[in-house]
Amino acid sequence: MEKEKLEVMIDEFIDEFLKETTGKNIQVISHFDTDGITSAAIITQTLKKIDQKFSLKIVKSLNAKIIKSLDSERPVLFLDLASGSFEHLKNSKIKKIFIIDHHEIERDKIPKNVTIINSELDKKQKISSSGLSYLFSKKLDEGNKEFAKLAILGMIGDMLEREIEKLNNSILEDGEIQRIKGLMIYPSTRPLNKVLEYSSNPFIPGVTGESFGVAELLREAGITPENGKYKNLIDLTEEEMKNLVTSIILRDPSQKNNELIGELFLVKFFGKLEDAREISAKINACSREGHPEVALGFCLENTNSKKKAESIHAKYRQQLISGIKFAKDEEKIRGKGYVILNAKNRIKDTMIGTISSILASSREYEEGTVIIGMSYDGKDKIKVSSRNAGRKGRNLREVLSSVMDSFEGEVGGHQSAAGCIINVRDEEEFIERIKNQLEVEVIKIGEK
After folding, report:
1. Do 338 and 438 contact (CB within 8 A), yes or no?
2. How far apart are CA 402 and CA 399, in angstroms?
3. 317 versus 299: which is more confidently predicted?
4. Which of 52, 211, 264, 419 has the smallest C-beta neighbourhood within 10 Å, fewest atoms?
5. What is the pLDDT of residue 124?
6. How far apart are CA 218 and CA 410, in angstroms?
């Protein structure tokens, strides 16, 4: 039987990787979100198993300065980034570069010193970098199936859970993941009142962040505590689930029944079945709060890292709820088909992407509306995150790339979720240029 394109790509990548790295000290550079961290966990454990020397660095984004700082004599492996940095890689003196990534790519610009696995080169599959890292790991050694659950966590962290079903490479089976139908509020394995209070996606008006509102919602749904404790979400009866969904829709009529109910993935973690979305969120929180080493340790089920991760996540959730409330209430720059939230220093730069995603899925905006979030990084940079409401509309990576031609900075991402970094001094000019670009895009669409 003929091999799939992705499988051929991985085979060729492995051959080149082993030829160029055996006996050398590899520099592994990975992105700091859930997908990047789980990719790093999979790859570093895989390299340890084959006694391959390596160093690991986790970064917020990739830029010319980071690339220039790398040892040009040592091979480099980039995870969950670098597909948008071909010009810098080509101009670097690094002799051999490997990339495992899933972001948009200009295939005709791949430098000669780069060997790459990127799912964008195989349009049949939507798969995260962690998924690709796992397929690489499993191809090296069938015994590496233990890392499959990390691939699933990375997929969920990148909001690709609806694509998991479409994969034809048995990652779900390898990870022994349990699937159930249920309410798409997480974690499904925790008491319902707390789950609703900290629900950010969906954001439930009058309930999220409001303990009184939670109690009122549950009372309306006819759900009462037993022995002073509410049931876990997955333990609700079918009738209780229906009543709860009805009560949520009454709070926010823009929510649709079929979007509130979906596939939940349960993963065995620290010997216990957990909601994969919660584990993914904890990994993300640790890294975004500046503790990637805790996130990595948590992925590898280290007990000390687990305690630290839970503490960091609790604080992060509080900040996230505050950020969402600010984003909902703050006056925004609005135009035809776009909304710009310039949060300045009111929302952390590590959180603006998450909040932009929540706004884009909030039903407050018409499908295809471009949501642009901006936040200071505490120094002299601004993080810009763009999202398409309903995940449909313009190619945001192309939009940002066009605008960034006038500024210093990197652009990365996908059609419906892209980002860049700009200098604070360019703030006002960037806003004017992005507004002009989005308005030109609207005209172009109207002319079609």
Report:
1. yes
2. 5
3. 299
4. 211
5. 64
6. 46
Question: What pLDDT is recorded for position 440?
Answer: 76
Size (the chain), residues: 448
Which one, of 205, 210, 230, 203, lies nearest residue 354 by Cα? Answer: 203
Q: Domain ranges in the chain?
A: 5-176, 179-325, 330-447
Q: Does the pTM exceed 0.90?
A: no
5-176 and 330-447 have identical folds: no
Chain segment 247-260, per-residue pLDDT in tens: 988 887 777 666 78
- Amino acid, res. 289: E
- Edge-to-edge strands of the sheet including 261-269? 178-183, 261-269, 272-275
Fold category of 5-176 in CATH: inorganic pyrophosphatase (n-terminal core) (3.90.1640)
The DSSP symbol for 131 reads: H
Task: Please provide the distance, in angstroms rounded to a whole number, between the alpha carbons at the two ends of the chain.
Answer: 43
Q: For domain 330-447, say whether CATH 3.10.310.40 is its number.
A: yes
pLDDT(386) > 70: yes
Which tens digit of pLDDT belongs to each residue from 108-142? 899 999 999 998 888 767 789 999 999 999 999 99
Cis peptide leading into residue 187 (ω within 30°): yes
Whether the Cβ atoms of residue 396 and residue 417 lie closer than 8 Å to each other: yes
d(CA 290, CA 283): 11
Tokens, residue 376: 């200071």
- At a CB cut-off of 8 Å and minimum separation 6, what does 285 contact? 309, 312, 313, 316, 317
